[in-house]
Each structure stands twice: as C-alpha cells, then as structure tokens.
Write a structure and sequence with these properties.
Blueprint: E1 2-9, E2 29-37, E3 40-44, E4 47-52, E5 55-61, E6 63-71, E7 77-84, E8 89-96
Parallel strand pairs: 2-8
Antiparallel strand pairs: 1-8, 2-5, 3-4, 3-6, 6-7
Length: 98
C-alpha cells in the first residue's frame, strides 16, 4: 500500500521596496521536501541523489519529475510523478508498506 500526502507551499512574501512596479524575482526552480515510512533511498528522474529520506529542501528545476523511493533493505520500491512549481515547495510523504 502506498499513501501519498502532498502540499504546495508558496514562496515567502517579497519585501516591499516602495518602488512602483516592483515584483519578486522569478525563478525557474522550486523545492521538494520528501519523507517516507520507512526511510528510503531517494532517486529523482532516474538519478540517485545519494540521500535517504527525510530530505528537506531539495532544489529542482520547475516542471514534471519522477520520484523513486527504495527502502534501505531493497525490499520495497515506489515510483510516482510530481510537479515542481517555480519558487514553490512540493512536500511528499510516502508510506511504503510490505
């Protein structure tokens, strides 16, 4: 069984500088917070990040990505697609069950 919990968090509010037409800087990257139960290796877009969950604030290009989690004993594996929005944080919590 795989349970997915996701959230999108917006960027911090821009500091007001008082200028007319000032806008926050646009970025082509966003962030991923990923956790799992039990802990698992984190593979994004078929590339091993060499990290283990939980992993906060992984910077990624905006767009669609593929996340694969593999339990440390290699017994369980889940792959899901997710989107990263520019300047936002995507939070995923994956529950891997036997």
């Amino acid at each position: 069984m795989c349970t997915l919990v996701g959230a999108f968090l917006g960027p911090p509010a821009a500091l007001a500088s008082g200028g007319v037409g000032d806008r926050p800087a646009q970025t082509d990257t966003g962030f991923l917070n990923v956790g799992s139960d039990p802990p698992a290796r984190v593979i994004i877009d078929d590339g091993d990040t060499k990290t283990v969950t939980p992993q906060p604030h992984l910077e990624l290009p905006a767009g669609h990505h593929k996340l694969t989690l593999i339990t440390l004993d290699g017994a369980r594996k889940r792959t899901i697609g997710f989107n990263v929005e520019p300047g936002q944080t995507t939070t995923l919590t994956i529950h891997l069950s036997p």
